[in-house]
User: Fold SalK from Streptomyces rugosispiralis.
Amino acid sequence: MNTSAATTARTMWALYEPIHAVGYFAPEARAAYEDAGLRGFWRGYFAGRAAPLGPVGPEPVVASFFTFAPAMVARALPDIWSLTAPERALELRRAGAAAALTRLLAGHEREVERAAEALVPRAAGLDGSGRVLAAANGALDFPDKPVERLWHAATLLREHRGDGHVAALVAAGLDGCEALVLRSAVDIPRAELQPHRGWTDQEWDAAAQRLTDRGLLTPDGAATEPGHELLRTAETATDRAAERPWRPLPLEQVTTLVQLLTPLTTACATALRFPNPIGLPKPTG
Assistant:
């Protein structure tokens, strides 16, 4: 068994990401935003995820979310702050995630407590250098309730990893649209990426042409071997950048955490769809 910290980082991502993602996709989470006047999925999404940054305009969100089309972000920001303040959006996302997890994890209350106890030390005090979303979320206090602590820890870890993933894609010479186009040529359908990130057909085709000119796509849109290798290199760099929280963890603690999180992850995954624009694999546990 490969027990490197980078391997552990990838294993853990697949376990904590579904716990985090219910805060956007579960009906309770969506209802919390809509009941507060944030109608439509994307208003709630941008309000909740961007709220730790404060009442920002589209520019820092385009930079930190990376794969979203600037025009899509600009339709939501800064207008959503006229509907709700960032502080209120933080309350809404916490309440919505807690309600969703309480339903999804009913009967697993003890496992939730133990998982939170194990995951919080990995998420607390993360180094936010070069990681805007991780640092902004890291400035927030941990909630008291176990289910909320679990969600907050999962959110800190996924934004920490996500910031590193953006850095890896930038280092690979990809912009946000190009990253999606190349990924769609490998394993995630275009229909799961383009409409959910707001790119027009013209923007998508222009990105595909740039990738073709670099030898990363064939003229008919298939990923070339250099294209596959570039994505593998970016994923490896992402795992390496995400390994710091897991370096001190001995194998027996990794095993225990996997055992704790697996049934929780499986339950949370029922609120998601597969395939999805996150690139999250369907749990096998």
